[in-house]
Write a structure and sequence with these properties.
CATH superfamily of the largest domain: Dehydroquinate synthase-like - alpha domain
Number of helices: 16
Distance between the termini: 55 Å
Strand order of the largest sheet: 1-8-5-4-2-3
Radius of gyration: 20 Å
Structural class: alpha/beta
Shape: globular
Number of strands: 8
Largest sheet: 6 strands, parallel
Strand content: 5-15%
Number of domains: 2
Order of helices and strands: EHEHEHHEHEEEEHHHHHHHHHHH
Mean pLDDT: 95
Bound molecules: zinc ion
CATH architecture of the largest domain: Up-down Bundle
CATH topology of the largest domain: Dehydroquinate synthase-like, alpha domain
Helix content: 40-55%
Amino acid sequence: MIKNTFTSNYTIGEMAYNEIPKICNIYGKKIVMIGGNIALEKAGQGIKESIKNSDMEIIDTLWYGGQASFENAEMLSEHESVKKADMIFSVGGGKALDTCKILTNKIKKPVFTFPTIAATCAAMTSVCAVYHPDGVFRDVYFRYAPAEHSFINTKIIAEAPIKYIWAGIGDTLAKGYEPEFSARGEKLDFSNSMGVTLSSLCKEPIFKNGTKAVEDCKIQKSSDEVKEVVLSIIAATGTVSNALEMKYNSCAAHALCYGFSILSKIEENHLHGELVSYGVLVQTMMDNNIEELKKLIYFYKSVKLPISYKEFGVTEDELEKVIEKACSTGDIEKACIKIDKEIYKDAINKLENFVQSIVK
Ligand SMILES: [Zn+2]
């Protein structure tokens, strides 16, 4: 069986855009820049500056359409400028980047990503989350490969609203635990082993640098700690996701997050990464890994990630339904233990008690 595994390429730093001509020039000269409006405002000027002494030119700048949908990818593909372009520069958050990944897979052109927030690993993965035009989740879609290269400007990311990196940390921690919990005991091939091995880079740099990075982003300061955390969120998670088979990519933490999504008050007031981060605690309790759990809880306290479902305003009755939904997702099918409603309930109750006992 043939299998493609892609690792991801990136440039990171406050001056990351300076490298654009060197890396992109071999793909041609004509660029169309596509992204979110705020993102284009923040990053557009720096991108233009970086190519002004090269033979490259931006022939058009387009808004991506506001949703990562097949419809928007189609709409963009009809622009004359996109037809003429040698490459697409995709600027913004996950939805803008995913739209351009879908677009460039269809029109067979290279794409370069310029993430302006660090909330997801979209900049460096081949997988795209696709939505209907009304915002309802539709499906996942795979580009043949991740973006050709990602230019990560840490100054722009540090200046973005703090909630993005905060939730990004929560989602990334899940990648630090779910692949191993899912694949434990399995006979893994090289690519899956690489994914599980590298998944430690989705937690260790965060434990080491996360608290400081969040503090720095609050005052919009790009520091070494911010850089390390951003790489964990974008590069480590992206590489792990590209290397692993889908079935090992998520487990009980994500399933619980999807469970919470049935409650509209949660959907409206809480971010994906925040919910997933709570799921990480529950999964670690399922795994009975008390040492790791302590480490996680102390870290969560320092950055104010949730340590109890009560922080979401969820009642015990609602929790029943949340668990039921979590157990209906495919995410828990591949796990080192058999996960059912009782296992979730037991882990959540134990976690509540444990948190009480160590957080005074
Ligand atoms: Zn996630």
